[in-house]
Recover the amino acids of this structure.
């Protein structure tokens, strides 16, 4: 065996784990990956025959060019921001809740029940009831996989994912069946909410944004300064440690997942009563999934989530503007968004790992026998 | 193939992790055929890094490795295997449900040989080196030492001439260690080149021909074993002279702080992890717990602290029955039991949190209100950093970034701050350097002098014999003896660890001083 001694060269590039970066270095690295993303996206645009600088400028100005545009951007941001806050609670505890989409939907369904069938209630009362209903709905939808996880150690990732589809088809069932709008015989849809069930506007945008800001403050304080928040961090760090410290892990998991789902449910309420003004099939529209990316890109930090969800909203809104202004197809702007996401996520990889290039061999004869001398 | 004098030569090996950590700094190492070289060094001195480069897990940043006189590039464990280097890791890499023979066949090149032929070859190697192996026995039926034999056979079967053993004796009883050393000596006689990594100086003295000492990533010296002694080696390792004796202060004993009677516990695999265990723990004493790894030590600690439920028996803390109490209730009895678990970052602390937040772990719920009060915890963190000389950039630096010794000081410090009646420590100095270990022994002795009842699970028998007042030996969950540490030898402990000798003083233990 040892006859075939191998003296081939070391590989050109290899991956090695790097020492932990300081938070500052990590942030710089992420900014760098954003810049690289813009460059790569720019090359893509240049190949298509557009001036990348103009396109980028349009994305930014497009998101802010008019009051209407700004309102549009904020409107995109609200559900994304709220549900990213929601999933953060679960992720801090290392509970892989990818069921935000379903929790948003169930929250919207619960709220819509009151919006549709108790529209004669006074507006403030109705809206508060809808809010609470959405929280209970989203919370229960989140609680389901947590209970199963506690009892039979089921996989919460698959469980929450599957519940998303059940929730989605539940809307279809309600639309085609019990909640179908009789005033619209040709086309199956759920009735539009009456004035009472619609969120009022402040500065031209439905007050979902006020709810979002309040939630931001609450979640921030909850995670950082309360005993509950501390328990969540400990369980996220190690369940064995939590047990050791005398915590009732199962109870805390249930409590936290209920809250996580409840917050996502609020996003559903805000979308239904603020944007769609009815219970639409697209009430969640993938927001629950994007929220997961937002939460992780922000390192589960509420302030980071505020920034990242804002940037996502700008990108989303701006892309729709370049579609209309430059005739860039939807697919192209999707590609552009994809490139940017790819780079930013890859940046996360380089926080932990680095590439090592093959070096030229150093020629000097190394010291013999004893090597105690300082380098 | 002509044989060079040196099996392995490392010249100026340098390996960095990140920008600051220099794990290996121009390390030189020569290994001859027909010799056993002990690689000695404290934790973090770069031993494992160096060996990982020989086995193809890491690549050196600079320097060259010569195997049998030819420069080589080891890019993967496969390359390393082809070069005839066999590594026997501390944690066995065996498939539990496979037989010994199947495990040996895994990873060999080419077509699998016929079982009869393999068996013949295995028997041949066994006879040659004095290995005892049953090729058809499943791994899960094997003892730790049998598993290790399979690992060694795996390496020999592939025709390796160079063997690297990473702390092979850590899991063995003294008798099993002797058997392993006999095998290694036979291999040496057959011309194999062997590197053995170990912390235990007496083993270095008994098995090796030469000793290479690493300190802080540098090779400080290579000495002939016959020309040195344990003290000189320690000084080379640490860099200054040290006193290796462990203090055992005389204290007044207080009877029956903790009484355990007939304790039986089911393990996670459905077998009895603890079987009819009885002992008493007195205030002002350190009771050592010895045993081969996995003899029920972990279960014993976790049962007393309420983390594991128990089938039968009773645990009484100053006449208070602990049965049926949750860890939370035990924490709040007022008579506190402190526990330094084996898995420091996975159970005793939260690695991602700073010292302050880790201080809160045992007390956060005691303050009234909904919010957490970090002020006293911060004060306690500062106090501990000062008192125990914990090296950390700050109280908010995640503890997983601290060195092993500092992590243990944080954990033990917090547990001691709770002013416990009973202190339970599991492998309190595992992975710590010599200075940190002695600092921990001092802390334990300090508690003992305060009248605390200390239960100390350990693995180094020399340390247990030096530090403890009495030693309880566990074997397969049963107590095989409780002996006076001052009058017991390591060999006696070794026999009790394998259950070969039952100490009859157990019954009269209460009358024993």
């Amino acid at each position: 065996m040892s006859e075939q001694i191998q003296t081939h060269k070391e590989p050109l590039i290899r991956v090695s784990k790097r020492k932990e970066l300081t938070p500052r270095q990590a942030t710089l690295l992420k900014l760098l990956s954003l810049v690289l993303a813009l460059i790569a996206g720019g090359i893509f645009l240049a190949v298509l025959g557009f001036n990348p600088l103009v396109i980028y400028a349009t994305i930014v100005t497009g998101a802010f060019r008019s009051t209407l545009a700004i309102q549009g951007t904020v409107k995109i941001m609200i559900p994304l921001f709220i549900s990213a806050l929601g999933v953060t609670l679960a992720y801090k505890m290392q509970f892989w809740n990818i069921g935000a989409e379903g929790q948003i939907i169930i929250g919207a369904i619960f709220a819509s029940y009151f919006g549709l069938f108790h529209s004669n209630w006074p507006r403030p009362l109705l809206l508060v009831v809808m809010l609470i209903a959405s929280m209970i709905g989203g919370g229960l939808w989140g609680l389901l996989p947590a209970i199963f996880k506690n009892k039979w150690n089921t996989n919460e990732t698959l469980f929450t994912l599957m519940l998303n589809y059940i929730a989605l088809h539940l809307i279809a069932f309600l639309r085609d069946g019990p909640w179908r709008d009789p005033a619209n015989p040709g086309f199956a849809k759920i009735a539009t909410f009456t004035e009472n069930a619609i969120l009022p506007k402040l500065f031209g945008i439905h007050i979902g944004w006020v709810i979002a800001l309040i939630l931001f403050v609450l979640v921030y304080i909850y995670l950082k300064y309360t005993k509950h928040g501390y328990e969540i961090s400990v369980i996220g760090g190690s369940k064995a440690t939590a047990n050791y410290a005398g915590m009732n892990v199962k109870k805390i998991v249930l409590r936290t997942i209920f809250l996580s789902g409840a917050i996502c449910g609020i996003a559903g309420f805000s979308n239904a009563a603020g944007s769609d003004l009815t219970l639409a099939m697209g009430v969640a529209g993938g927001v629950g999934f994007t929220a997961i990316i937002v939460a992780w890109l922000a390192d589960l930090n509420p302030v980071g989530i505020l920034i990242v969800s804002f940037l996502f909203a700008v990108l989303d809104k701006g892309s729709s503007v370049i579609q209309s202004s430059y005739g860039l197809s939807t697919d192209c702007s999707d590609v552009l968004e994809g490139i940017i996401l790819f780079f930013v996520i890859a940046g996360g990889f380089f926080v932990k790992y680095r590439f090592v290039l093959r070096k030229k061999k150093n020629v000097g004869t190394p010291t013999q026998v004893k090597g105690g001398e300082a380098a | 193939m002509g044989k060079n004098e040196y099996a392995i030569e490392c010249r100026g090996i340098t390996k960095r992790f990140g920008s600051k950590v220099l794990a290996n700094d121009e390390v030189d190492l020569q290994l001859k055929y027909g010799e056993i070289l002990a690689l000695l060094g404290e934790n973090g001195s770069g031993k494992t890094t160096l060996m990982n480069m020989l086995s193809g897990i890491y690549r050196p940043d600079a320097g060259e490795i010569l195997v049998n006189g030819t420069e080589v590039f080891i890019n993967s464990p496969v390359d390393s295997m082809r070069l005839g280097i066999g590594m026997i890791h501390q944690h066995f890499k065996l498939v539990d449900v496979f037989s010994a023979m199947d495990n040996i066949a895994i990873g060999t090149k080419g077509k699998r040989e016929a079982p009869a032929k393999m068996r013949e070859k295995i028997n041949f190697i066994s006879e040659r080196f004095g290995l005892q192996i049953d090729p058809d026995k499943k791994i899960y039926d094997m003892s730790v030492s049998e598993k290790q034999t399979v690992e060694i056979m795996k390496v020999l079967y592939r025709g390796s001439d160079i063997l690297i053993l990473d702390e092979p004796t850590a899991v063995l009883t003294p008798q099993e260690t002797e058997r392993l050393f006999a095998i290694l000596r036979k291999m040496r006689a057959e011309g194999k080149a062997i590197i053995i990594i170990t912390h235990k100086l007496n083993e270095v003295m008994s098995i090796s021909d030469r000793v290479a000492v690493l300190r802080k990533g540098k090779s400080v010296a290579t000495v002939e074993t016959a020309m040195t002694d344990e003290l000189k080696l320690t000084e080379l390792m640490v860099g200054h002279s040290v006193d290796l004796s462990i203090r055992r202060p005389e204290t007044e004993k207080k009877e029956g702080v903790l009484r355990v009677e007939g304790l039986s516990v089911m393990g996670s695999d459905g077998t009895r992890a603890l079987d009819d265990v009885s002992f008493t723990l007195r205030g002002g004493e350190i009771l050592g717990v010895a045993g081969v790894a996995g003899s029920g030590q972990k279960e014993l600690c976790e049962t007393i602290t309420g983390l594991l439920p128990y089938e039968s028996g009773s645990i009484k803390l100053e006449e208070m029955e602990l049965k049926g109490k949750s860890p939370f209730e035990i924490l709040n009895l007022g008579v506190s039991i402190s526990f330094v678990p084996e898995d420091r970052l996975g159970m005793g602390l939260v690695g991602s949190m700073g010292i302050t937040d880790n201080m809160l772990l045992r007390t956060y719920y005691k303050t009234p209100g909904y919010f957490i009060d970090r002020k006293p915890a911060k004060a306690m963190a500062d106090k501990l950093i000062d008192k125990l000389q914990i090296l950390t950039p700050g109280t908010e630096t995640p503890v997983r970034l601290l060195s092993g010794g500092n992590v243990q000081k944080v954990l033990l410090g917090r547990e001691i701050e709770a002013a416990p009646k009973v202190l339970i420590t599991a492998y309190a100095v595992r992975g710590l350097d010599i200075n940190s270990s002695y600092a921990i022994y001092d802390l334990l002795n300090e508690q003992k002098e305060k009248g605390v009842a200390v239960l100390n699970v350990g693995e180094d028998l020399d340390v247990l014999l030096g530090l403890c007042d009495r030693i309880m030996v566990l074997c397969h969950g049963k107590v095989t003896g409780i002996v006076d540490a001052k009058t017991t030898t390591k060999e006696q402990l070794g026999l009790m660890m394998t259950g070969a000798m039952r100490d009859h003083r157990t019954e009269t233990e209460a009358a024993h001083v």
Observations:
- The radius of gyration of chain B is 24 Å.
